[in-house]
Amino acid sequence: MRIFGFTFKIDPFVNDNDAINAFYGKCDDASVAGSGGKTLIHFDREADSLDDALRRDDALRSAVAEVQGEGWQVREITVEPDCLAPMTSS
């Protein structure tokens, strides 16, 4: 399996450290950052391929469900660029 990175922009802006710490207690593969009134949550999830991560496996769906379980809404999802194309040597 490979690791795929997803970053979510969520609403509302989260600046409650207790809520963030509680979220960390449920998701050990997430990082929360806030800046300029925006909250970003980054996940690293395992799947056999990017297609599986996005469509078949629970990698993306489970991350969205965990965010929504906190009452937060996912507004945008970014797939990390290094997941899109394999590194090649010259």
UniProtKB/TrEMBL annotation:
Report the domain of life of the source organism: Bacteria
Question: Under which name does UniProt file this protein?
Answer: Uncharacterized protein
The record lists the organism as Bythopirellula goksoeyrii
